[in-house]
Write a structure and sequence with these properties.
Blueprint: E1 6-14, H1 17-33, E2 37-42, E3 55-61, H2 64-72, H3 74-86, E4 87-95
Antiparallel strand pairs: 1-3, 1-4, 2-3
Helix pairs in contact: 1-3
């Protein structure tokens, strides 16, 4: 059985740049520990349907279990405190399509 990748898909509006900066500094610890790779990280894009946020992020993990473990880790939860203070965000963790 082929292992499928795991992904975080995030849509973010930064309300407090200082809190968001702390979040990014701390989330790097969890992302490194769990082998996260940024595939998309930035504001450039065109909304073609639905609502929008300013920043869009796609982060890839070796598998879905790693993606979930990263989110639930103490390292990420320490960072998430700052995300909750300075950002409006939609984050979904999904399993990749095995083809």
């Amino acid at each position: 059985m082929t292992k499928t990748k795991g992904y975080w898909i995030g849509r973010v509006d930064v309300l407090d740049a200082e809190a968001y900066g702390r979040y990014r500094t701390l989330n790097a610890v969890a992302f490194e520990k769990f082998g996260a790779r940024f595939l998309v990280r930035g504001p450039v894009g065109k909304l073609v349907k639905g609502g929008a946020r300013k920043h869009n992020v796609v982060i890839e993990f070796d598998d879905y279990a790693q993606a979930l473990a990263c989110y639930e880790s103490p390292e990420y939860q320490a960072a998430k405190v700052h995300l909750d203070q300075g950002v409006e965000a939609d984050i979904v963790i999904v399993e990749g399509y095995p083809g």
